[in-house]
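Handoff note, outgoing to incoming analyst
You'll be picking up this chain. Sequence as last confirmed:
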Amino acid sequence: MKSPRWLHTHVSLELQRTVQRTGQDDYVGEVLGSAGSIYPDVMVHAGMALQPPRAPVRGAVLASYVGSRRASGNNVLLHGGPYRLPPHVLLDANVSTMGLRFLRGAPQQISFQLSGKNLLGATGPAPGFSGVDYPLSPRAFLLQINLSL
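Most recent structure output, in case you need it:
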């Protein structure tokens, strides 16, 4: 089935299996093991962008599943052993205008873009370093205005 020219979609799947070679045969090497750190085991992304014909606006949505991941090496050592960070789902979206004429007859154009990040308000830790896991970025909105002269 062929999608219309004004609709673009994509889906991607990432499977990770990372191995680290520390070269350490001591306590640190035993605690860290050979499993790679901070990379999720699996990530799935699905997105859609649409720009209706002859409309001065376009929109896009991106949903991502980020699987469980191991803590960073420093945090494993400081915590006293390996642990995993939980999976989470992120949803981002944006709506933007095409270049609109700013003044009649002049070449200036203005465009607007409203972006939303982590719209579902996912919470939890992301891999950090030096004993601290970072919190996921909170829900955020950004309005951008571009003026070309």
